[in-house]
Structure formats: C-alpha cells, structure tokens
Amino acid sequence: MTSVLRLPIAEHSHQLDSPEFAALLDTLTAEFSATAEQHDRDGSFPHRNFERLHELGLLGLTVPRALGGLGANLAQTTRVIAAVARGEPSTALVLTMQYLHHASGRGARWPQHLLHRVTDETLRDGALINALRVEPELGTPARGGLPGTIARRTPEGWRISGRKIYSTGIPRLTWLAVWARSDDAEPLVGSWLVRHDTPGITINETWDHLGMRATGSHEVVFDDVLVPLDNAVDVSPASAAPELDASLLLWMSVLLAAIYDAVARNARDWLASWLEDRVPANLGAPLSSLPRFQESLGQLDAWLFSSRVILDAAANGAVPPSDAFRIKYLVTNTAIQVVEKAIELSGNPGLSRANPLERHYRDVLCSRIHTPQNDTILINSGRAAFAARAAAKKASPAGVAGISTITAKDAS
C-alpha cells in the first residue's frame, strides 16, 4: 500500500477525499478482516494492524497540519474509523482514542517540549496515546467522584501511585494520560502525562472480556512512578467546574457510533450471504428467494440507512454538538437491534463460534458500556426537556414549550 502522504492531491481537495484513498481503505478493511477472528479467539492484541496504520501515515491522521499531521476533519476521520472497524473493531476503538486526543487541541495548553515530543513520536515512531481513567473502586469517573490515584509533589517531580482498569490499548501505548489527584491540601485533579517505559509501571493482563477482546484493556498499576513537574499537563483544582469541549464530545459520539455501526453492517452482510447460500432440502431454493427474508433484509437496510444519515449529518456539521450523545444512543442501539435481528433470522447457525455473526454480536453489545451510558443520556435529555418547558411557560403567558437539546453541562 502507498502511504497516505504520497497519494495524489487534486486541486482544491484533500488526499483523504480522493478515490485512491477510498480504495486504500477498502484494502485495509480486507487485510484486518483476515486476522480478526484469531485476535478475538485468543484475545491477542493486533500489533500488526498498528504497524500497517503507521506505515500508511494514518496514526497521525488528526494531528494538526501545523504539527506535521494530516489535520483530518470529522467526516474524513469517521470514514477511516468505519473502514478499520469493518475489518477489526478493537483496532478501531484504540485508534479512536488516538484520534480524539490529537483532535482535541488540549495539547495547546501543554509545555511546548511535551507537545512536540508526543507529536513527533506519533509521526516518526507510530506512538499511541490514551487516557487511563477508570479505577476498581471508583468505576467510571463520568458518574462523579475523585480518583484514588495520587500524585505526590516532591523536589524531584511528581510520584504517582494508583491502579487503573480498562486501559484500552495498553499493550502498545507509548503515552498514558493518567487521571489522578495531587496530595495538596486543595488537590489538583486531571491528567499527568506518563511514558509507558517509566520505572514503577506494571501491566496485569486481566482483560478477558465478552467482546472487543483484542483491545488489550488490561489493569495498570503505578507504584511511585516519577515524572517531571511539568508533566501535570491538564490539571485544575478539584473545586473548579470541569471544562467540557462540546465539539470533542461530538467527535467522540460520532466515532464510537461509527465503530458499532460498522460491526452491524458486517452482521448484515454475513446474514445476506448466508441467506443466499442456505438451500433447505424441502425448499429446493435459497432462503433469499422467500419474501419473508427479503422483507427482513430490507428492514435491516432501512435501520442502517437511518444510522448512516445520522452519522453523515453529524460528521458534516449538520448536527449541533449539544445533540452529540443522542447520536451515540440512536446509532449504537440500532446497531444492536440489527445484529439481534440477524441472529433471530439465522437461528442456531448465527450463534455458532464457527460463524462471524456470533463475534459481531459480542462486539456490538460493548457499545452500551461507553460513557455516557444510555440511562445518563436519556435522563439528561428528559431533564433538559422539562427545563425548557418550564422556561417557556415562565416566559410566555400561553405556556408554549420549546424543544430542548442536551447541553455539554447536562451531559457531564
């Protein structure tokens, strides 16, 4: 394959929008598909997939152009994630975390030497970065609370101790953004930047999950890990209101949704092929010849069409960031519905370990655990709706209620 950086660029366009790039993504999907079953079977991390992504220049897809990256927009990034997920969704999830970090702009607040070091290692060496936030006692920080991981201020730097679980991509991460709190009287809370090879870090290979088994989301233990003082790259007093980047929430929702939409499309394709190949003796013709199955496949395609419309609209700026989490809710729940319908139609064959549909089902169910979960999305949506109605009644004697959206503040 040709590196993306060497693809032809048409006048007034980007190489990421070229037919050549679309063909490259199709080839990448097929390549990753060839080993997806084995990675799922043994829970192995897909190192070769990331080597290929680096060879193609795709690990720096969302690194700003000013820093040497491709500076991809959300629509371009979504196409890449969807293509990778069609091949191997665990790879796509790790890649999504990488893309979100570099697209966030949070590095602009970092010391310049750290920003350039992380960026240069990404582009030159294929370095990966992700945030390590979830802890055994606290669970997901989205539900509130302070981290148990402690950063102690010492004359030689910060010494970090704590334990993280669900550390997605840890077998290949170079940089860890560790969510912790300082030992100050009024603690600082936020991210400390830690390189993976710093002494005192232990990886316990605990990840043995139902789905997305190749993400390598193991437990990581920090035992008095020393980092320089300026590696407290994104911290603020615990009493301060969290800063939420609404545009980044939109990116997160779209990219996560695109992963599981891709899994559902794989399930749909498996079912269509199975219906074409399955010829019961009492029928003497493929199941695809029966109106019942034709109607069912049409239903799946209609569901997937609705998801595609939502994702395309959001990726191209037609959906406000305030509706970000509704995108995740609608698309991921539709994806589960598609795969479950495919299983219903195929019966026992669809649940056999010999068929990909069983793997797609386990993978798509993992869409429910990504922050924010469905209950949070719907509760905040309902609260926002009632708040808008109350405000409208107060402002209008007629009591006309307005239409509401989830705000970034509500979503937190």
Automatic annotation (TrEMBL):
Acyl-CoA dehydrogenase/oxidase C-terminal domain segment(s): 254-369
Keyword Flavoprotein in annotation: yes
Superkingdom to which the source organism belongs: Bacteria
Coiled coil (residue ranges): none
Gene3D superfamilies: Acyl-CoA dehydrogenase/oxidase, N-terminal domain, Butyryl-CoA Dehydrogenase, subunit A, domain 2, Butyryl-CoA Dehydrogenase, subunit A, domain 3
SUPFAM superfamilies with a match to the protein in the record: Acyl-CoA dehydrogenase C-terminal domain-like, Acyl-CoA dehydrogenase NM domain-like
Annotated ranges, domain Acyl-CoA dehydrogenase/oxidase N-terminal: 28-98
Record domain Acyl-CoA oxidase/dehydrogenase middle: where: 135-225
Keywords: FAD, Flavoprotein
Cofactor(s) required for function per UniProt: FAD
Family from the record: Belongs to the acyl-CoA dehydrogenase family.
Identification of the protein by name: Acyl-CoA dehydrogenase
Native source species: Duganella levis
